[in-house]
TrEMBL record:
Belongs to the heat shock protein 70 family. The lineage of its organism: Eukaryota, Metazoa, Ecdysozoa, Arthropoda, Hexapoda. Signal peptide: none annotated. This is Heat shock 70 kDa protein 4. It comes from Anopheles quadriannulatus (Mosquito). The keyword NADP does not apply. One of its GO terms (molecular function) is ATP binding. Residues 510-526 have a biased composition (Polar residues).
Length: 540
């Protein structure tokens, strides 16, 4: 039995496996380590990965890509609508308000959810790993962007369950990168010494994530993580828009009027962008039979691209400066700045890093495979099937979390987790109640990049007054689990013995970093002197 780490990217995915000799990235059936995150439907066939991406232009309406950002989102979400406008395939609202993707499959119209499409891709990655390793694939760790919310993380878990994967942990991409950096370092400071602070800049296809991490020997602690939805595809769009305007003037053709032509233009400017990262000279752009049998020609220099994309670089700079502020690190406390992700190869981004952090961008990590390798390491640490030395990872909760409930004296609201609170973590809250209660959990308004901060509603049943008709003490446990998912995991009512004096009504809270049990498990406080704990039923 093997343990694998999956880096599920917006454009391509990687699978790494933990072996006796170390971590190895698996090649797919095309001998490529990167498997495009594409699913296509052609007649009676379902095509996945490289073969699916190859037919993106010819089978545009039935080739599904860029679906990662649609997971767990509502159709009328403004950010989701922004994503949907740029997609060539047909989407629609589902009955539950989610996003449906309409395709022609088995000569019939089918509507799939992003979770189902993701599950199809995971099945392909699982099969590739099985072919390479010749052994059953059970346990895995899947990486998620640090900015993913509860709903998005749950949707990704659902997709993994559909594909038959046992997910030991959903791990933030920033934390996986930090683990792949720190695990093999022999010169990390001892626990009693000052930590080694490292900044990680991950600029991928659809997002930018910048994080700060403190390392000690045998453990890492994330300090802060900032993100923005700017990535390689935004640079492609800027270039494609520029060349389209040029072609309108020069050749009297408008690529934006035809989805297929614009897809071809996006593919060509992506190649040009990659070449410009390595060359500062003027480079040509040639597309044969582009539209109306017309061949188009143009050229561009790196400096022109940087000028056109200045607004994107400004956003990247803002995100980096916010990270520096949030992490509370002085420039002299930063040991190094590591870069990962395909788009971090753009020279202007490296220049920004040096300008902001005062240190050159370090490339000691494999920019494409670092995330999957970190996930495979985490899977090896968690799985009983593999023996590996321990390395502790303390993650952070990206957004502040609040709970609210209504009492006889009106509504109450309490912040249970601050931004960048350690995770996983449990917090015990004490309330005094006579009757069942409804707890609403939500993110702090305006703290997340989505309009709806709602996480979930929990109904705590079985609360009743004591023999004297007084309110009873109820301890509610709110938990961030290993997957970064926030739940109300248990509620316990405490009845005082008659010999005991009434307890103080002051609410208390305390944290416990150990993983707790299921929803109806008694609180660890249940053996307090003079109290009898009674677990409550919780309905989500």
């Amino acid at each position: 039995m093997s343990v694998i780490g999956i880096d599920f990217g917006n454009d391509s995915s990687y699978v790494a496996v933990a072996k006796a000799g170390g971590i190895e990235t698996i090649a797919n059936d095309y001998s490529l380590r990167a498997t495009p995150s594409f699913v296509a439907f052609a007649g009676r066939n379902r095509v996945l990965g490289v073969a699916a991406k190859n037919q993106q232009v010819t089978n545009m309406n039935n080739t599904i890509g860029n679906f990662k950002e649609l997971l767990g989102r509502k159709f009328d979400d403004p950010r989701a609508q922004e994503e949907l406008r740029s997609l060539p395939y047909h989407t629609e609202a589902l009955q539950d308000g989610g996003i449906g993707i309409r395709v022609n499959y088995l000569d019939e119209e089918h509507v799939f959810s992003p979770e189902q499409i993701t599950a199809m891709l995971f099945t392909k990655l699982k099969e590739d790993a099985f072919k390479e390793l010749k052994t059953q694939i059970n346990d895995c760790v899947i990486t998620v962007p640090s900015y993913f919310t509860n709903a998005q993380r749950q949707a990704l878990l659902d997709a993994a369950n559909i594909s038959g994967l046992n997910v030991l942990r959903l791990m933030n991409e920033t934390t996986a990168t930090a683990l792949s950096y720190g695990f093999y370092k022999q010169d990390l400071p001892a626990p009693e010494e000052k930590p080694r602070n490292v900044i990680f800049v991950d600029c991928g296809h659809a997002s930018l994530q910048v994080s700060a991490c403190a390392f000690h020997k045998g453990n890492l602690k994330m300090l802060a993580s900032c993100s923005d939805s700017v990535g390689g595809r935004d640079f492609d769009l800027v270039l494609a828009t520029h060349f389209n305007k040029e072609f309108q003037t020069k050749y009297k053709i408008d690529a934006s009027s035809k989805k297929r032509a614009f897809l071809r233009l996006m593919a060509e400017v992506e190649k040009l962008k990659k070449n410009m990262s390595a060359n500062s000279t003027k480079l040509p752009l040639n597309i044969e039979c582009f539209m109306n049998e017309i061949d188009v020609h143009s050229s561009m220099q790196r400096s022109e691209m940087e000028e056109l994309s200045s607004h994107l670089f400004k956003r990247i700079e803002t995100t980096m400066r916010k990270l520096l502020l949030d992490s509370k690190l002085a420039l002299e406390e930063i040991h190094s700045v590591e870069i990962v992700g395909g788009s971090s190869r753009i020279p202007a981004i490296k220049h920004l890093i040096e300008q902001i952090f005062g240190k050159p961008a370090s490339t000691t990590l494999n920019q494409d495979e670092a995330v999957s390798r970190g996930a495979a390491l985490q899977c090896a640490i968690l799985s009983p099937a593999v023996r590996v030395r321990e390395f502790s990872c303390t993650d952070v909760q990206a957004y502040p979390v609040l709970i609210s409930w209504t009492d006889t004296d009106g509504p109450h609201e309490m912040k249970v987790f601050e931004q960048y609170h350690a995770a996983p973590f449990c917090r015990l809250l004490t309330v005094h109640r006579k009757e069942p209660m409804t707890i609403k959990v939500h993110y702090e308004p305006n703290s997340i990049p989505y309009p709806d901060p709602f996480i979930g509603t929990y109904h705590v049943k079985g609360i009743k007054p004591d023999a004297n008709g007084e309110a009873q003490e109820v301890k509610v446990k709110v938990r961030i689990n290993n997957n970064g998912i926030i739940t109300v995991s248990s509620a316990t009512m405490y009845e005082r013995k008659e010999s005991e004096e009434p307890s103080s009504p002051t609410p208390t809270s305390n944290g416990d970093q150990q993983k707790t049990g299921d929803a109806n498990q008694s609180s660890p406080q249940g053996d307090e002197s003079g109290k009898v704990g009674e677990p409550m039923d919780i309905q989500e």
